[in-house]
Structures are given as structure tokens and as C-alpha cells.
Amino acid sequence: MPASFGHRRNATPALVIRAKPCRFPLDGKQRRKRKRSAMTSTSIASGATKTGRLSSWAKIAYAFFGLSFTMSTMVNTWQMFYYTSFMAIGVGVVTTMLAFGKWAGAVISPIWGWLSDRMYSTAIGRKLGRRRAMLLILAPLNLLFYVLLWLPNMPVWAYILFNVGYFAVWPGVTTIDYALPSEMTDDSKDRAQLVVGGQIGGAIGSFGLSMLNAYLFQIWGTKTWDPYFKIAMIYAIAGTILLILAAFAIKERPYDPSTDVAAADKDAKGKTNFFKQIVSVFWNFVSVVRIRTFRNYLWIFLTQIIFRNVRGVLNSYFIIFVLLLNPQAVSVSTGISFVFGIAFVTFWGWATSKVGGLKTYRAGGYITTIIFGAILVMGLTKGNFNATQLAIGFTVLITAFGLGNSGIVNAQQYIQAFVPDVDEIVTGKRREGQYAGITETLSTVVQALAVAGTGIVLQLVGFQSNADSQPAGAVNALLYMYCLTPMVLALLGNFLTYRMHLNDENHKVLVAEAKRLREGGSMADVTPETRKVVEDLAGMKYEECWGHNNIINISNRG
């Protein structure tokens, strides 16, 4: 194998500083240039940290992302009510406006990931760090559009514009959030703790929003627009402060050839142009399917997000029309689920750090299957129980489902953090933002399709809107859709995990090989064992890895 494989085409050469004798005194301009170079090197080193074990403060600060998401929870919970009840906007206009905004966010999410990965090509990125710089740009933009969402008595066209702006900016924040577990550390235990911290932060934020809103509504009332506006402003200020605190506490990979992703966009002459960059955004979005580990992860991701969304859409209908319960009869499950949910997430974080994400995913999948099997039996035999027994039984089972669901979600997010490590061995670049953007887009698209698809099926089986009861066919359809969708897709997800070979042992081999090549090692010196692991995870020949492909740059011929 030729030694040239140790250097990929279009790659940025390793940063090597060699002292050379100075034959002539430096003039003022040269001294200033050297000083600026030294300052840049210092700022890069201080703005980004190598991925060793993380401090407790860095882990806590990452959880601030989850806490700050109360801003979006407020939007999802009260925005539609606020517009229709107090701004006198028709419900059809509001739903169209929100749907358009979310679809706009889905389209722009890959662009945020693409930009975030390439921030080291800018002065501010090299000064602050690529993720930190992007977050400090996004936080004030998000605050601006968030405040504009809640301004009263604006024309409809203004609300449409503000919603597009908000839903275009917010995915940039969530993209940074998704990217950070892989960005901040290579250590599997730290990654597991980051995932847990983010989930706990989100749970505490959602619970705190519910409690604080209830208290403030009791004080300020609910009959006028201003209580909603004031509450939204509280979350706007608190959420923005949390994002800024997180920005200055997160750790990043240092500037080096692997994080200089923009270098891979250039052609053989070292040039690029705006049109090629536009093409690159969408090419990078689709070309990742050539990586075997990502394809395997993608199917796992889709199975769990589909069944969780379908179950969420049908939950109220199942309670009311299948079990014939008043929704208030099981409202206590919200508080109980929160208490148990924190314990569940903590447990799965510990378990994942011990046995890996694939095994904990399977455990969560089997628990989910068993729970919904029990709910199916309850639905089929509901005539044997009174309303109180059904309410208690359903509350217990849904709380138990929280154990399986949190296991699946925790493991999915943990597995996602390792996909960029495979991408690095394929492309020679660290593209956490790319995969975070893809995840954000797919989440939005699947959620929309799940809602639409579920509605179409309900129409086909005779579901009647604004009715106190449903035909027998619709009731049976609700029962089987609600129970069998999670059961079938959870088992399918479990089966798919056996196709994914990114376990802890293979990950260590992968990281070690990427480190060796990053430090200038030759691809000709790869061991047979490492070659086998890399080719299995990448789904391509070893010689085609480390930038010898066109996965980042469509014009690159290897």
C-alpha cells in the first residue's frame, strides 16, 4: 500500500511549528503579524479543550440546555391558545402559520449544522470555538424572535414573519445541543452523563414550567393577554441567560485539521464558491447514508420516534374513547411520572455507562413491548373492571412505560453521540453539527408525518370529530394502533440494534485509529484487526476512508 494514503486529498496539513533562524531583524509589520498569530493560537487553545474527562461544572452547564428549552415548551403549550383567544386570529390561519414555521425549521436545520461545523474557518470561531461562537450568535437572535412572537395586537403578516424567524433560529440552538455530547468528550461514561443531564434538565424545566405557570395564572389571572405575555418574557430572559452560561462552560475540540471542516469543501486548486457551498449543504445531508453505521442508526432512530409520536397523538383518544375514562381521572400520573422519570433516567444513564447503549436500548424496547401488551389486554377486557380500577391500572402501566421509554430515548441519544466518530474515520473531519442537524430535521418531519398519517387512518376507520363516543370500528382501531404500534416498532428497533456493531470495544479501536491518522500516521501501517473494525463500521474499504471519498465534497475523486 502506498505511503501516500497517510495524507488525504484536500486535507489541511497538520499544524507543525518549526523554529527557523532569523537572518534579518523583523520590521514593525512582521512583528505585529507574528504577535497576531501568537494571539490567535492562544485564543484557540483557550476557547477549546481536548476531549478528556469533563469537570462537574461542564456537565451541569450542559444540562442548562434542557432547562432553557422551557422557552420552546411555552410556545408549544400556549402560543396557539394565545393567538386564537386574545389576538383574534382564526384557528386555520394559526395552524397553517405554525406548520409552515416548523417546516421552515426542518429545512434550515442541516444548514445550521453545516455552518456550525465550519465556524473554525471564521475569525470569531477561531477566537471563541466553533460551537460557542455559533451559540452566542443564536442566543440573542432567538431572544429577539421569541419576544416578537408574544407582542400583542400586531397584524397577521407580522406574526407569520416572526414565527418563520423563530422556527428558523431555534433549530440552530437544538443542533448545538445535539452535537455537544460527541463534541465535548470521547469518554463513554462522560457522554452517558451528559445525555442524562440533558434529559433531567428538560424534565425539570417542563415540570417547573407547569408549576410556575399554575402559580402565576392564579395571581395574574387567565382572561387577558398580558399574563401570558409576562410569563413568556420570564422564560425568555431565564432561557437566554442559561444558554449564555452554557456557552461559556461547554468544552470543544481544538482547532486542528480534523475540525477545519471547511478545508474539505475546496477543490484541487484550494478554491470554492457560493454555488458549490449551497450544493454542499444538501450533498452533505444525503451523502451520509453511504456510511453503514449511520444507516443502521437511522433505522433505529426512525422506529422509536415513530411509535413515540403515534402514541402521543393517540393518548387522549385512547383514554377517552377506549377506556371510557375522564382525562382528569389519570392526571395524577403526570406528577408521578415526573418523580419516577428522574429516577428512570438516572438509572439508564448508569446502566448505559456500564453495558453500552445497544444493550440498554434492547432492555427499554422489551419493557415497552411488555407494558403495551398489558395495556392491550386491559383494553380488550375493560368490561371486567370499573372506572377507578381502570384509572389506577392505566396510571401504573403508563408510569412503568416511562421506564422503557426513557431507556430507549437515553440509549438512542447516547448511540447518536458515537456516530460522528465513525464519520471522522471516513471523512477525516469532525462533523458533529452535521448529524445534529439531520436529527433535528428528521424529528420534525417524522412528527408531522406521524400526526398526518394517524389522522388519515382515523378518518378511514370512521372516527367522528366533536363526538362523545365513537363507532366500534374506530374504537378497535384506536386500541390496536395505540398498543401494537409501540410493540411492533420497539421489537423491530431491538432487532436492528444487532446490525449495529458500534460497541465499546470497537469504538476504542476507532478512536485510536483516528488519533493515529490525525497525528500524521500512515494508512499503510494499519493493523489487520483495525482494518476489519473500520471497514465493518464504515461500510467501505479502508483505503476509501480518511477523506479518500466524496462524502463531504461531491467533486472530490478520492
UniProtKB/TrEMBL annotation:
Gene3D superfamilies: MFS general substrate transporter like domains. One of its GO terms (molecular function) is symporter activity. It comes from the Bacteria. Keywords: Membrane, Transmembrane, Transmembrane helix. GO terms for biological process: carbohydrate transport. The chain crosses the membrane at residues 60-81, 87-112, 133-151, 157-180, 192-216, 228-250, 297-324, 330-351, 363-381, 387-404, 435-458, 478-498. Pfam families: MFS_2. GO terms for cellular component: plasma membrane. This is MFS transporter.
